[in-house]
Amino acid sequence: MTSATGGTAHGVSIGLSLYTGQADGGGPRFVDLPLLAAAAEGAGFDAFWVSEHHGFDDGYLPSPLVALAAAAQATSTITLATGVVLATLQHPVRLAEDAAVVDHLSGGRLLLGLGSGYLPAEFTRQGTPMAGRGRRLAEALEVLRLAWTGERFTYHGRLWSLEGVRVTPAPLRPIPVWLGGYADAAIDRAATTAGHLVGRASPELVDRADRRLRASVRAGDPTFTFGVMLTLAGDGPRAAGASARAAFARQQLGYERAQTEGDAYAGRLPRPAGDRLLLGGIDAYIQLRGDAATLVEGIVTTAASLRHWPSLHLSLRALYPGEETGLQVERVAWLGDEVLPEVRRRLGALQDVAP
């Protein structure tokens, strides 16, 4: 197996997602994050993922790097990953500094996933123009690479102009940067980084990113990681699938209401409307559901279908807002006891077979 930050021949890593801090009334549950990150590490996950949005009524996490700084103190080996930081909403030098600090606090375990954002309200509240966000993200990547050298640098782009800037501390090692996004330009841009994360594992979105990235030069590099986030709901008392479905449905409905003002999934899926879930029931949004054996089969089948990637990361979305913390910890432990060992045993057989 590999870590989420690197790759070896036919390596598959498995992460836990997606911590957002949301709660059903009473304010966000950020205090639970270190406990859940530690539970993910104890269960044998390779990475722990957090996300970012701004201004949501239920307290969606607005500061993922701050959150991962807390998670770093509760863990020692697991990769800490952002899926994704909205890089277009902040100054790239500040982003470089914050990421470097988290890298130090974690002992070099940060994986920085970045995205351009798509909700107009988030840009308006930040006083940032939404137009040109692709260019803004591209320049942020360029600035990050210069800033993390620890050397003084000058940069003149269309949007940012920096003269004689030095960022300290430099990170402990080159921080791997992945990009999310569904538009052609976003996928092409990801090919110049260390990885790409498909945040919604709809077959058409996964297939499109897979085909487009495989056609790029960078995708042939074994250090490039193709990442897919798979949403799951397990059956049985320890998995608490009914609770997961109910919590996910509440979150998804709020998410879709916010998306009515934005260009979700780069227009590749229908736009949400009204007070009902776009796809009907919540099971339509869940890629993996059933008992442990069924989840294992689904994870292994997904990995096998993408085994042409030298480095593949599957992030299992099993954390949902508003659930009782102990229930979520027990679900994570169940995955570590009943699902991950068998997945890794099965995937071991794929290691020696050429794609």
What secondary-structure arrangement, pairings included, does this model have?
Blueprint: E1 11-19, H1 33-43, E2 47-50, H2 64-74, E3 79-82, E4 85-86, H3 92-105, E5 110-115, H4 120-126, H5 133-147, E6 153-156, E7 161-165, E8 177-179, H6 184-190, E9 195-198, H7 203-214, E10 225-234, H8 241-259, E11 288-290, H9 292-305, E12 311-317, H10 325-351
Parallel strand pairs: 1-2, 1-12, 2-3, 3-5, 4-5, 5-8, 8-9, 9-10, 10-11, 10-12
Antiparallel strand pairs: 6-7
Helix pairs in contact: 1-2, 1-10, 2-3, 3-5, 9-10
How would you sum up this structure, described in words?
The protein has helices spanning 33-43, 64-74, 92-105, 120-126, 133-147, 184-190, 203-214, 241-259, 292-305, 325-351, and strands at 11-19, 47-50, 79-82, 85-86, 110-115, 153-156, 161-165, 177-179, 195-198, 225-234, 288-290, 311-317. With 355 residues, it is of the alpha/beta class. The chain has one domain (11-347): TIM Barrel (Alpha-Beta Barrel), CATH 3.20.20.30. The strands form two sheets. Strands 1-2-3-5-8-9-10-12 form an eight-stranded parallel beta barrel, surrounded by eight helices. It has a two-stranded antiparallel ribbon with strand order 6-7. Helix 1 packs across helix 2 (64-74). The radius of gyration is 19 Å and the shape is globular.
